[in-house]
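User: Can you recover a sequence for this backbone? Please restate the input before giving your answer.

Assistant: Of course. Working from this structure:
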């Protein structure tokens, strides 16, 4: 008999396994459930595959292995009206991980590190793939913690000019020490399509970069009179825009 609790365990499985008649839990996830959470089998769980799909199931244990007995159909979350890409000047590892974790919790859909003149850290060519894989895993852990069924995408760094050349439905750039207006919160709910959010590296954008940002059609916005850390600015801008888009809803995922 399945054991029910007020808060279901959230378990990640690959997309192919979610569709299976007996979804298997991957080894690392199984170790977490058995060794850390002391799973015995029979627990009611919420399976998710990181693409926005989920399914109710009951955990079954066979030694050190876990598989699931489906207890409902595969559910797909509705596509967002606005897709949020958070672009930020490259920062050091602790700041990057802060942006990824908090941005995932807030509802960012894509993370895009940007190569700027004042960027203080760059991904080494031969290790970037492995680093991105590990940081993508951090996004998955944050998605599980905040009860999100999709996992945001972390893209490889690109030059600022290249990112600005990509068409978007809207773009907002946080510009420090400027007379930029505050966000028009009343206009945000009507946005649809890809919405780009841009913040600078430590030390901010250089004047030539700011000119290019404005020439590309990004709307400059102020985050207040204080000078924020690069990682703080990225998270604050994302929080304001997602709040304005009414992305924070009391409704839980199906």
């Amino acid at each position: 008999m399945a054991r029910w609790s007020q808060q279901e365990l959230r378990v990640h499985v690959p997309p192919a396994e979610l569709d299976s008649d007996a979804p298997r839990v991957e080894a690392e996830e199984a170790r977490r459930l058995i060794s850390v959470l002391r799973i015995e089998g029979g627990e009611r769980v919420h399976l998710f595959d990181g693409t926005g799909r989920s399914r109710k199931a009951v955990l079954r244990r066979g030694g050190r292995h876990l598989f699931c007995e489906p207890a409902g159909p595969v559910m797909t979350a509705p596509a967002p009206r606005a897709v949020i890409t958070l672009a930020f000047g490259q920062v050091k590892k602790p700041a990057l991980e802060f942006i990824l974790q908090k941005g995932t919790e807030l509802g960012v859909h894509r993370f895009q590190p940007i190569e700027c003149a004042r960027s203080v850290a760059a991904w080494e060519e031969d290790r970037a793939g492995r680093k991105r894989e590990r940081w993508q895993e951090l996004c998955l852990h944050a998605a599980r913690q905040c009860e999100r069924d999709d996992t945001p995408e972390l893209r490889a760094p690109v030059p600022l000019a290249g990112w600005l050349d990509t068409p978007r439905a809207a773009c907002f750039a946080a510009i420090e020490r400027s007379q930029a207006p505050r966000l028009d919160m009343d206009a945000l709910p009507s946005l649809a399509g890809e919405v780009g959010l841009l913040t600078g590296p430590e030390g901010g954008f250089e004047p030539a970069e700011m000119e290019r940002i404005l020439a590309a059609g990004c709307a400059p916005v102020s985050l207040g009179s204080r000078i924020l850390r690069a990682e703080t600015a990225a998270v604050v801008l994302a929080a304001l825009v997602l709040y304005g888009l009414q992305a924070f809803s009391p409704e839980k995922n199906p």
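That completes the design. Residues 1-6 have pLDDT under 50 and may be disordered.
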